[in-house]
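We give the chain.
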Amino acid sequence: MTLDALSTPALLIEQSRLRENLAAMQELANANDVTLRPHAKTHKSVAVARRQHQRGAEGLTVATVAEAETFVDAGFEDVRVAYPVTGRDKHERLQALRAAATISFTVDTPAGAEQASAVYAEADDPVDVLMEVDVGHGRCGVHWADDEGAVTLAQHIASLPGLRLTGILTHAGQAYDGPSDGETETDALRRVARHERDRMLSVASTLVEAEDVGVTPGTFEISVGSTPSMAAFENAERNGLRITEIRPGNYVMHDAMQVALGAASLDDCALTVLTTVVSIQRKPGGPRRAFVDAGKKVFTTDTGYGTDGHGIALADAAGMQPHSGVRVDHLSEEHGWLGVGEGADLEVGDRLRIVPNHACVTVQTQDKMHLVDGSEVQETLALDARGRR
């Protein structure tokens, strides 16, 4: 089947690029002696997760309890919820999964730890938890420089029945901020990757020296994530401790944000949205525009450092070169608004492939994606975890 047979909008995954992305991240993990536990929130696909495991990945990372249920139901036996799970109902659902898989999750507050303990104290075997650390993103987690806060929370977790403190975990979301003054994109990625690694090793070293925590080098997990910081990741040792696990998600597809940050090239971007031009207009006094059948509900309005509009339009439906005369400069719910230069030859009914700014959110909007080789559709993949609550 060719692309012409697909109804638009449709998600396309370039098969060769997917393979190359999977191989490159696994090679990085192997070279740095870390476990690759990929984040499945990006692709939400059992088929893609199996491809990751075939390459050498171990376990999966997910963002929600529903995603954990999806992948355990599909036979995955080691699933980590990289999120401070809160609420008895959610913990009871995770506890039910433990008959079939090893389940772990994060905590970052005493109250969150106590809520978890109230459920797992009733179980025969303690559940693995990781204390979340903030290494600069400013979201959840104990601040990396707050030694007293980290030790106090770790001691509290270790003291609670039903919980087993197995490690610390972070997400260096500040990697998406881009360069600071005077930095290049490469400099910024190296800075964030270094901070992510060194700050986590510092926290782990503090916990090793603390009483009543039970941290032992060699068994304590130190888990880092973020696709852009992985572009500059190098492991290191401090006080017998090393990073043990990486959890990138976006790397399977990459997107316009990764290209802008310097974490990937356009040639690495496996995900595109196939769209159809539904109208071409030039309003009085306005620019020439083309409108496609994919708007906010497909691309989302996410932008970031260095992005230009809401995606990168490609020159033709089968190729992967940027379209120099077309810019995705506005979105409404069902329409993508394209600025069209005088040299851009677009007609109603033409099809375009557009690299989205943010692959993770774009995938969440659809029910399936198509594995393609140029203009040929090789396979249709279900987005198994999409929309589950």
